[in-house]
Amino acid sequence: MLLQKIFSTLLITGTLLAAAQAQETKRPVQKVNFLVPSAYAIQLPETDQLTGYLGMRYTYNLRNRLLKIDEKGILEGFQSRPGKQRWIGEHVGKYLEAAANTWIITKNAALKTQMDRIFNELIKTQLPDGYLGTYLPDSYWTSWDVWVHKYDLVGLLAYYRVTGDRRALTAAVKVGDLLLKNIGDLPGQKDIIKTGSHVGMAATSVIDPMTDLYQWTGDRRYLDFCKYIIKAYDHPAGPSIVTTLLKEKQVDKVANGKAYEMLSNLVGIIKLYRLTGDEKYLQACRNAFDDIAAKRLFVTGTTSDHERFMPDNILQADTAAHMGEGCVTTTWIQFNVQLFAITGDLKYYNEIEKSVYNHLLGAENPETGCVSYYTPLIGIKPYRCNITCCLSSVPRGIALIPYLNYGKLNNRPTVLLYEAADIKDRVVTAGGRETPVALQINTTFPKEGKATIKVALPSAARFALQLRVPAWANGFKAVIAGKTYTAQANELVVIDRNWARENIIAISFEIPVTVLQGGASYPNYIAIKRGPQVLSADQSLNPSFDITKTAFRTPVAVQLTSTPAKLPAQWIGKQAYSVTFKTGTNKEQPVLLVPYAEASQTGGDASVWIPAGN
User: Fold this and answer.
1) CA distance to 103, 119, 441, 443, per residue, from 106 (Å)
2) Where in this chain does the record put each Non-reducing end beta-L-arabinofuranosidase-like GH127 middle domain (predicted)?
3) Which domains does the chain carry?
4) Average pLDDT over the chain, rounded to whole?
């Protein structure tokens, strides 16, 4: 007991110390702002602590994935060149980004110590000329070398953003300058299309962090390099990303259809639009979104089959299809975040919500922190803890969640997800005065469609608070001081009022159950969706019948009964729903369903698509 108390005291002291140090650190400010105004600011309020369902998964990501990172494995390619794997160098940059985004929220002392240690070891390996890859000189700028430097930039700039450590920016500038020196269209330079894989899309995706490097430094050479990449897309044997999307409006017509690399480029292209205002960049990205959302998106909010965009409506969902690459899921979310930031259009946010509640969380086992490279809708999720691109990418996606549940939309504080959270922010009142505000959201969502929001201020003030009405919600109501506010699904409720020092908003909405048809790929199957969550039948929870071979009659409607008591003791998650289907012989068969994000966590075969041919 004494040792436990000592350990607890040390842990608390360490956390408080880290928090105190963070308060003392002056976070750096970017030198260049976006030219195109932002509808949604992708930045944190003063504090945003998720305490509910997503908070649980966020904590598991910290505890079971980030803090258990294989430090030797992600660094050895730099410390002993050449690396064992062609893209081994990407992992440290991905880790640093996920760790930075998580530490700035949690102030977890152990994470800060680990993050600092990995950063320090990484920059020790940077050569005097700025090289920070995992290749030997005779292989520089071939294969995945530019790709590795891309993720160096991602990680270094993320670390700099949250710590203010100038060494990180210095290392990033050296990387940027080395790229400018070696790649371009001047004599003696290499064509970027010829320096990387997948019709050059792996290398050209460096456009993303190069826009960030321009913003942090104000050095226009980095912006010019991004414009060079846009031109290089149309070089001989180049991917013609923008040109093809403007003409064909289909992502499967671009280059070799490689989803991860293409989406990585699109994230950079849309940032370049925000810096330049060139409308063709935005239109190309809009075309890509419309095509993916309409024809290439699984019901759980991911895309790709064998890592590529398939022809229209081909959405094979079993393990053999190698569907839903984890890197693609995370980058699809990043892409939608950028589109939402520019436009404020809720259709982009709806895709973020769908991906987060389903495929993103479904790709990481909450108990072990292991990640499935491809995460099927039919079959056992192949969770593994060995280093892969997806083991590094999925935690990055989960680390983004606190940037997405609440923020300023069109300069108004806006609650976007009805997740339990403690939020502190500053708002501008109707009189132009800035005042602190605290929002405490209490809810059991996604189990129930109820929430209370306590709004606390130091003194009475008038301002507008916005509440997003989810696209799937019915009967949304927000009640405060006897006044009811309503809006249709996929709209915003605006509460513009004189707020007292303490206020309580009571929110309620129906969480509908929807029967989804299997489409062209699964014409004789159905899936069940409850609110934003797609449900799955886990074989380990349904031992009395074969979930993939028992055909049911297609129900007109589905009645779910909450039965969490049927879950085994070790199960992580508190949602389970019983439903009774009828077989072709009119026999009633009880089926237990759980959220797809939690299915297969104990190694059970699971299926979103349920046979219902009649």
Assistant:
1) 5, 19, 18, 21
2) 435-510
3) 25-404 (1.50.10.10), 409-510 (2.60.40), 513-611 (no CATH)
4) 94
